[in-house]
Target: PA14 domain-containing protein
Amino acid sequence: MVSFTNSAKHNSKWKDLRVANGVYLERWDRIDYKRVKFLLADPRYPNLPSFTECVPTFEQPSKWGDFFGSRLRTYFVPLETGNHYFVLSSNAGSELFLSKNEKPETKSMITYIDGGFPALKYEYDRFTNQKSLPIYLMKGRYYYMEAIMKDDHQDYDHLEAGLYTPDGQFYNVIPSKFLWTTLRTPPAQNATYQAILLKVAARAGAEAGLSFGGRWAMKTGAKSGAKTGALAGMEAGASAGAKAGTKAAMEMTTKTLQDAFNSFHGDSLHKFKITIKNGSVVDITGPGMKGPLLMEVVVVAVLEEEEVVEEVAVVVVVDQRGLLAQQELQELPGQ
Model:
């Protein structure tokens, strides 16, 4: 998750939540006029905001200041499939965007407030352009959502968005249960994910050898991490990404094995510890060092309605009783 710093005094209600649910809020100070185009034309937009934080719902604080521009960003995740209507209100020029998927570059404007025709706080029916057309969304899918606003010197600045869901319910402000600041595996996919893991565990258990495979597991984990790092490094240098991935894989694999040993055989006084040097296991201390154990890195396909929607790298550890420890390797997207 992206970590934000606070560069201005603000109400304690709007503190940095540092949680997955919510909205990223950004502000750019000292910009004249009340139309969105003046925010977009400022050279500091979008990379150098004056203030940033995370808020729980899709609205910004009221009476926040004068002559500023703001942006709210989040992932909207529907709780049911069907037509959704979004409504927008602000005291100055504002625009609301929604993507057809989780990618910001696919966003389209769905409703707006003209800078010369403001609405009161939570007043969503003054102008016809405040309400979107029906938008058909799928339950559990991630859709990037963004709102921008430009305020001038008006006394009561505000910006908020409401929601009509397919079941007819109206939310005066879109609540946090629909909003995510990071991409996650949606709840609808978790059941399928767990079922596939059980199959992976059974297969890994059947293939478990009669000797401890710590050294082999470390090398396999490092290769998988290097591949993951290389993919991430496509944006910041493939070589640096691969090195970072290898280091991360070593740390992850060591922790996974230690946690598995302690879960299966350890106790509060006698903990397992694995010592790594130059990418190889050089020492293992702890009780119960008997019986076969296998660690395997596999790629799990996550299915939804018989369609592959995601592939996840999973580290699976199995002892002689077929017990399972797992670690998911999932890169969070940059914000």
About this structure: Confidence is low (pLDDT under 50) at residues 1-19, 208-214, 289-303, 312-335. Residues 144 and 246 are 31 Å apart (CA to CA). The radius of gyration is 25 Å.
